[in-house]
Each structure stands twice: as structure tokens, then as C-alpha cells.
Amino acid sequence: MTNINKSSERLIATVVSNKRVGQYHQILLNVGQMVNGCKPGNFVAIKVGGDNAKMILRRAFAISRVSHSGPYGGSMELIVAPFGQGSKWLCAQIEGATIDLIAPLGTAFGIPTEPVRALLVGGGYGSAPLFGLAEVLKNRGCRVDMYLGASTGGKIYAPMEGKRSVNVLKIYTEDGSMGERGRVTEPIPGLIADGLVDVIYSCGPMPMLRAISHIVAGSDVVHQCAVEESMACGVGICMTCVLPVADSEGNVSMKRSCIDGPVMDGSQVMWDLVGKIPEAHA
Ligand SMILES: Cc1cc2nc3c(=O)[nH]c(=O)nc-3n(C[C@H](O)[C@H](O)[C@H](O)COP(=O)(O)OP(=O)(O)OC[C@H]3O[C@@H](n4cnc5c(N)ncnc54)[C@H](O)[C@@H]3O)c2cc1C
Ligand code: FES
């Protein structure tokens, strides 16, 4: 049985900075030695609303990047979209505020031992953990191309400094307001047909992850995706976050995306059954 990430711990972290970047907030937290256990793909569960809040459920956020040394010691960056009550509270926290968090949680992206041609695909704030991943892959000698997509340009997160870690960065928006018009998944079949990709790493909305899994099906391309299933506890207790996943023999079972994920093998997620109650096995 899978267990909670062994490196995880609870910490009261201090907000170092909180900057607006497009429609997102780039929040830097001082987390000290915790950065040593954080890997690209891991997430953090944050208590939102302060001590007296009625919001009892922690909110999950992908760890965008960590820095081991800097003026503040170990720090962790989050990219947060102000959406509902919890994320808006987090986006309102100013420098010096304290945040109650548990991290690092969940699985991390698998890093190849040999240099490969990697395509990183991000949807909306899903690009956040991909820049840290790109740095790790580059240091392993991989070719790293990154394709980012969103409905409109304001929802693209692509910081200037992140562009240094990739060979090619392409942007796709559905309304054509930034980069090329269209969906970020559209060029992928051509790249696969031309033999230009070995591994796809993806993070973003579930329909995008599902579409990529369907595109790579039948090819030799490996697809590692960071799923974003609604979570309540974030630590493996409540079963809110379960997804149907097949093992190597094709047996399907419900896996908790907070501890068996968020990074999963896209070919093993039973996308057509996500959100449905599985039939009982005889
Ligand atoms: C692995 C993972 C990584 C993520 N990474 C990011 C990221 O990098 N950036 C980002 O902006 N967002 C991220 N999210 C989404 C984030 O966790 C929140 O869902 C989002 O910020 C909206 O939360 P909210 O509190 O603003 O909205 P709300 O609508 O208040 O709550 C959002 C979710 O919390 C749960 N919830 C809230 N209240 C209740 C209740 N009373 N009972 C039951 N459930 C409730 C529900 O699942 C709901 O969908 C991630 C989610 C996951 C699972
Ligand atoms: S969120 Fe509770 S088990 Fe995954």
C-alpha cells in the first residue's frame, strides 16, 4: 500500500514576496531545509483562511520551484490563481505573513537516467512545476521543449527566467491573443509522427491530460502527467481524490491521486472512467 511522501512535514512558513504575474500570484515562501525533500511534481497542502476560518480543508498547490540558497535560505515558489475563497485568501497574504503548510506531498516526475527528448506541456497555471522540471532535465543533458496553452494570453504563465531552461518555448491560446491560435495539444501528433519526442511531461486541466494520453496511445512515447483531481485531506485519508488506474496486467483499481499521484503514467489512467463509479468485480 502506498504511503504519504516520507519527506513531508508540517511547517509555519513566512511569505517572502507575493507578486502579480498576469492573472496569477507568484508567492515565495521561506521553508528552510524543507526544500531538500521537494522534487518537481510534488505539491503542498495549505491551511487557508487563518486560525478562525471555517475553511477546514487544506488547498493543494503544485510546488513551482525551490531554491536551496538565497538571501532567505531555502524557499519555495507557488503560482496561484485567485479563484475561490481559499486561493483568494492565499493571494492576499503579504510579505511577512505566516502560512501553515504540509509539504512535500505526492509523487514526483520520473527523471530519465539517459538524455531524452522531452516535451513539457502545460495548461494555465499547470506550467508552474514544469519550469523547475525543465531545469532538472536540462542538467541531465535532455533536450527540453515546452508548449504552453490556455484559453487566453492572461492565463499563460511563462516567466522570463524560466525560458532559459528550455530549448524551444511555444505558446498556444484558443482566442489567439498570445502565441499561435489553437490548442496546445494540436502539434503533438506531428511531433510524435516525426519521431521528435521520447517523453511527454504534462500538467494542467484533466481534459488536456486525457487528450495527450489518447494522442500518445499506440506510440512508444511515455506520458507522465500530474493529475489535478479535487482533494480534501491531501494526505491519503479521505479517498476524495481517487482515480481509476490500471496495473500492468490491466486490473483497474481506484488510486488516491494525493499519494499515488499527482504524477501518474498517463497510459494507466482509465480516462473514460474518471468520475464514474466502477463496477464491482465478481
Ligand atoms: C495536485 C493539485 C495541484 C494544484 N496546483 C495548483 C496551483 O499550482 N495553482 C493553483 O492556483 N491551483 C492549484 N490547484 C487547485 C487548488 O487546490 C484549488 O482547488 C483552487 O485554488 C481553488 O480553491 P479555492 O479555495 O480558491 O476555491 P473553492 O471553490 O473554495 O475550493 C476549491 C476546492 O476545495 C474543495 N472544497 C472547498 N470547500 C469545500 C467543502 N465545504 N466541502 C468539500 N470540499 C470543499 C473542493 O474540492 C473545491 O473544488 C491544485 C490542485 C491540486 C489537486
Ligand atoms: S485527498 Fe484525501 S485521500 Fe487524497
What does this structure look like?
With 282 residues, this protein is mainly beta. Helix 2 (128-139) links the parallel strand 8 and strand 9. Helices cover 13% and strands 32% of the residues. It is globular and about 55 Å long. The model has no long low-confidence stretch (mean pLDDT 92). The protein is built from 4 helices and 16 strands. The protein has helices spanning 85-91, 128-139, 188-193, 206-216, and strands spanning 9-21, 24-30, 43-46, 59-62, 65-67, 75-80, 98-105, 117-123, 143-150, 168-173, 180-181, 199-203, 222-226, 242-246, 252-256, 263-265. The strands form 3 sheets. The chain has a 7-stranded antiparallel β-sheet. It has a 7-stranded mixed β-sheet with strand order 11-10-9-8-12-13-16, with helices on both faces. The protein has a two-stranded antiparallel ribbon with strand order 14-15. The protein folds into 2 domains: 9-105, Translation factors (Elongation Factor Tu (Ef-tu), domain 3), CATH 2.40.30; 117-273, 3-Layer(aba) Sandwich (Rossmann fold), CATH 3.40.50. Residues 43, 57, 59-62, 79-81, 83-88, 125, 128, 228, 230-232, 262 line the site of flavin-adenine dinucleotide (FAD). Residues 231-234, 236-241, 256, 258 line the site of FE2/S2 (inorganic) cluster. Residues 228-269 form the Dihydroorotate dehydrogenase electron transfer subunit iron-sulphur cluster binding domain. Keywords: 2Fe-2S, Electron transport, FAD, Flavoprotein, Iron, Iron-sulfur, Metal-binding, Transport.
